[in-house]
Write a structure and sequence with these properties.
Layout lengths: L1 H7 L6 H8 L3 H13 L12 H10 L1 H4 L4 E9 L19 E4 L5 E6 L6 H7 L1 H15 L2 H15 L7
Parallel strand pairs: 2-3
Antiparallel strand pairs: 1-2, 1-3
Helix pairs in contact: 2-3, 4-8, 6-7, 7-8
Length: 165
């Protein structure tokens, strides 16, 4: 989530600013950056995402590293194929939509645990982050067609600055 936020926002940042933007403590934000560096998802010199590595991890590893946990029917915020931009391209069936549990959400659906507990509130404050995290859930829980489309759309969003790739 932190690497995605950094890929979307090219501005200079401090750890307190980053922590506030994604709903983490400063120490959690620092630890996330360190894990990203260790995983070769973040450049240790610039502290910016290595976009190609991030996209490769999201396309091919996210569903294994962050196994989607589903539970019962809850009120929440739409995700995956039920959220923009996938919902604009994929017709929804009669099944309940996947949602991140959130008491103030506007949709009843099947609960899908978000990547991190603060992801829902951070997404509600940042529409671009919301779209990307919903696309990540498309990769985590989608069928083959949904995963392909989610990966393509996520790549478009994360490679906006081709010089940074």
């Amino acid at each position: 989530m932190v690497a995605i936020k950094l890929a979307l926002d090219p501005a200079e940042w401090t750890y307190p600013q980053l922590a506030k933007a994604v709903g983490l403590s400063v120490s959690e934000a620092h630890a996330a950056i360190r894990r990203g560096i260790a995983a070769k998802l973040i450049n240790p010199e610039t502290l910016r995402p290595i976009r190609r590595n991030l996209i490769e991890f999201l396309r091919h590893g996210i569903q294994y590293a962050f196994v989607p946990k589903r539970s019962g029917v809850v009120r929440g915020v739409r995700t995956a194929h039920a959220a923009p931009p996938l919902r604009d391209s994929i017709a929804g069936g009669d099944d309940l939509p996947p949602v991140w549990p959130y008491a103030e959400g506007d949709t009843r659906g099947e609960a899908v645990e978000p990547l991190y507990p603060s992801a829902v509130k951070a997404s509600l404050a940042d529409p671009a982050l919301y779209e990307c995290l919903a696309l990540v859930d498309g990769l985590r829980i989608g069928r083959a067609r949904e995963r392909q489309l989610a990966g393509d759309l996520l790549e478009q969003r994360l490679l906006l600055d081709s010089k940074a790739a």
